[in-house]
Every structure is written in C-alpha cells, then in structure tokens.
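Key result, reporting period 2: structure in, sequence out.
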C-alpha cells in the first residue's frame, strides 16, 4: 500500500498516533549515528506531551541536514514508599537514567526494538533523550480497543515473548499498553523504562516466561558483570547491577528447566 493510501486507511480507523519520518535520511542512520545526533543536534522546539506522569517533553532536533524528534525525560524521584492503584512499593525510583540503561542493556542483548536513548542536558536539566519512534501505527492499548489482530500472529507472539523476557530481566514495574508501540510493519517497540531496574532479585512474573528466543537466551548466558559495569555503571548502582545479574541467572535457570520438562522445540525459537 502506498503512503498516501495508508494514511487514508489509518484516518478511517482513527489511528491518531500515526507518525511519519520527518526526514528521509533519518531512516538510514546507524545506531551510533542516532546516538551522535541525539547528543549534538540543535534543539529547535520543545513542547509538553500532555500525558503520562513524568512531565516529559517532545523536542524537535536538527543538525542542519536531518531534522527529527526526540522524547525528553528528566524525572528523578526516589521515595521510601510509593502508593498507587497497583499497591505499595518500597524503595521506589522513577528515573531518566533507567531509560538510557534499558537501551544500553538492549544493545548488549542484541535487541533492535528499544529506541536509542542517550544522556544529555536539555534546558539545563540532565535528561534521557530518546529517538522518537518513526512510522507508529498505534500503541497496544489502541490495538486492543479496536480488536485488531496482527497480520502475522506467530511473529507477533515471538515479539511479545521477547518483551516479556526483557521486562522480567529489568524488573519493569510500569510496562503498560501505551508504552508498547506498533509500527506500520507491525514491529513492537518498547519505550519508557524509568520505573525499572529494581533491587528485587526474584523474577517478578515467572508465569510470563513461557518461551525465549534462542539467540537472546545465549546472550543472557554470556552477559558478564564486566559488560554491565562497562555499559551501565553510569546509570545503575552496584546494587542494581547485582540484582540484575541475579534475575538473569534465575531467568536462564527457568528456561533451562522448561526445556527439560517440555522439550526444546516447545520453549526456544528463532525470530523470523
């Protein structure tokens, strides 16, 4: 379907979240080039998103050749106890650093579905500056509300299994339907990890861990303390890294046990 036809199709469905690349060149940038752009491009415009609880901003950046938007999060809140409709949480933290840590951990694990996020000062505040995801069709809440099924259910389920493994690894307490974005190719993008990387060492929802992508499991096994200290230490404390490693061990043990019980073919798969 051509771009114009798809826009009309999206409008008929009421998919207001649809976004298109602001510059053709932006789609061809490597991950390293996106990081450089986010760190150095001039901020042309800032505006409040008007949703969410972190008072985040949307920025338009330009380096003179490419113009692209970014998500700006500068929140850094620590509470001894936090009460919400999900219950009480001790040692609560909501921090921009976790967005950068989530991206960098994703790189270590070979994941392609976490937008590039870097540290930068914007408006005098140190922030996570994250690549605004292009070609968004809708988020998961809109998909469910419209009762739309994925065109390739098997591929969709394989992507969701990766999301679930990653969320258990980082102990994500705030994965919700609005921070799972669906692109026009029906790729899933994970955003907003500011309420993750807890000090808890157990798997939060082991029932969610039913299948694992084979390469991802191998990368989890190979992950070392040195890797994490090198890539995450500016954004995670020593105790947060210790908890992450312990959860990693338990996730690997969990899948090894499932393979013994159910067989490799029922548990492990390749992403197509």
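The corresponding designed sequence is given below.
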């Amino acid at each position: 379907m051509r771009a114009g036809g798809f826009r009309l199709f999206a409008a008929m469905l009421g998919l207001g979240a649809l976004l298109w690349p602001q510059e053709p060149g932006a789609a061809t940038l490597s991950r390293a080039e996106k990081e450089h752009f986010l760190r150095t491009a001039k901020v042309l415009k800032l505006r409040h998103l008007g949703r969410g609880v972190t008072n985040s901003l949307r920025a338009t950046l330009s380096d003179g050749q490419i113009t692209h938007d970014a998500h700006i999060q500068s929140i850094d809140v620590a509470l001894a106890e936090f009460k919400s409709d999900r219950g009480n949480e001790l040692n609560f933290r909501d921090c921009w650093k976790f967005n950068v840590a989530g991206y960098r951990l994703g790189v270590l694990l070979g994941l392609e579905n976490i937008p590039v996020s870097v540290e930068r000062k914007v408006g005098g505040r140190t922030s996570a500056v994250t690549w605004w995801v292009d070609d968004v069709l809708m988020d998961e809440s809109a998909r469910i509300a419209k009762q739309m099924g994925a065109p390739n259910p098997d591929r969709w389920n394989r992507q969701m299994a990766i999301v679930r493994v990653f969320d258990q690894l980082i102990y994500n307490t705030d994965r919700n339907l609005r921070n799972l974005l669906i692109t026009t190719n029906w790729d899933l993008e994970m955003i907003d990890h500011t309420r993750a990387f807890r000090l808890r060492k157990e798997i939060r929802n082991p029932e969610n861990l039913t299948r694992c992508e084979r390469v991802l499991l191998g990368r989890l096994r190979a992950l070392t303390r040195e890797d994490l200290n090198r890539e995450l230490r500016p954004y995670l404390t020593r105790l947060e890294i210790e908890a992450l490693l312990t959860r990693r061990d338990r996730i690997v043990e969990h899948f090894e046990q499932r393979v013994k019980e159910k067989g490799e073919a029922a548990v492990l798969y390749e992403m197509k």
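The chain has a mean pLDDT of 90. Residues 238-262 form the longest helix (25 residues). This case is discussed further under Risks and Mitigation.
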